[in-house]
């Protein structure tokens, strides 16, 4: 049991310069006994209102140095404070506020919400067990207008989809990775590096791009690049929910439409998912 959707803004001031972190936190506990479920005995139950207040107090006292560290702080608090807690799991996601710039100059106290992907993390721990940390990015919308196709697929009497060697590749990406056992990582640096890998693998070189034979291949390219460049990542999951665009037939308007006006297909949409990890992690 636990408390979901604890939302708050943490404001930090360094002189005239302000820093903000707006987050949503979900914290769940498992106790050493199930007596509250089986017997209606609430003597070991930590009220969910107390859970909420603990999260807010930790934000006040410790700040949010990184999402991952804040989740770790929450897990550590419940494990060290309450002997009846057997397991704790905390999920934290961030509202994407970025510092506003005016003529290239960063503003000291103004921010803009930029929906270019939502950062999140999870931390979980069993008593006498290791602290495990996950992190990720979701709702990241990506598009490239060429260097994508889909050819040579299996066909039978139900196949109506034509082969395409030049199409728009567009989708909403969810990516989650595991660090394995928690160590003293620079979580902000690692997260930014993984985000750069995602964008690089999706788009290819800026002057020419890179051909994608399928959404599945793009998903694998993202995972392989992250695992090759970020040694701290042990397992990475990627889900790409696809958005398809159909070329609008404008012949009845007396116009030739050479893939200049396209209509998004709202539903149904495709989805590709894959989990990839290091061999040594799965063997362990």
TrEMBL record:
Record's keyword annotation contains Oxidoreductase: yes
Catalytic activity reported: urate + O2 + H2O = 5-hydroxyisourate + H2O2
Protein's pathway: Purine metabolism; urate degradation; (S)-allantoin from urate: step 1/3
E.C. code: 1.7.3.3
Single GO biological process annotation from the record: urate catabolic process
Family annotation (InterPro entries): Uricase
Name the record gives this protein: Uricase
Originating organism: Smithornis capensis
Record gene name: Uox
């Amino acid at each position: 049991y636990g408390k979901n959707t604890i939302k708050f803004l943490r404001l930090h001031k360094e002189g005239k310069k302000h820093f903000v972190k707006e987050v949503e936190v979900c914290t769940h506990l498992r106790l050493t006994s199930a007596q509250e479920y089986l017997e209606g005995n609430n003597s070991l139950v930590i009220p969910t209102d107390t859970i909420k207040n603990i999260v807010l107090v930790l934000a006040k006292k410790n700040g949010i140095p990184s999402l991952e560290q804040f989740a770790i702080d929450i897990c550590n608090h419940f494990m060290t404070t309450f002997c009846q807690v057997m397991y704790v799991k905390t999920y934290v996601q961030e509202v994407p506020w970025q510092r506003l710039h005016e003529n290239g100059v960063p503003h000291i106290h103004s921010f803009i919400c930029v929906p270019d992907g939502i950062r999140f993390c999870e931390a979980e721990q069993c008593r006498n067990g290791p602290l495990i940390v996950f992190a990720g990015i979701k709702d990241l919308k990506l598009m490239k207008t060429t260097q994508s196709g889909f050819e040579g697929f299996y066909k039978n009497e139900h196949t109506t989809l034509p082969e395409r060697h030049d199409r728009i590749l567009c989708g909403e990406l969810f990516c989650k990775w595991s660090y394995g056992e928690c160590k003293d990582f620079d979580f902000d640096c690692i997260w930014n590096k993984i985000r750069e890998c995602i964008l690089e693998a999706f788009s290819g070189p800026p002057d020419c791009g890179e051909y994608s034979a399928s959404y599945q291949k793009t998903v694998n390219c993202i995972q392989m690049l992250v695992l090759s460049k970020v040694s701290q990542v042990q397992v990475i999951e990627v889900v790409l929910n696809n958005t398809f665009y159909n070329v609008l037939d404008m012949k009845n308007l007396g116009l030739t439409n050479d893939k200049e006006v396209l209509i998004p297909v709202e539903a149904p949409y495709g989805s590709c998912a894959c989990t990839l990890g290091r061999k040594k992690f799965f063997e362990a």
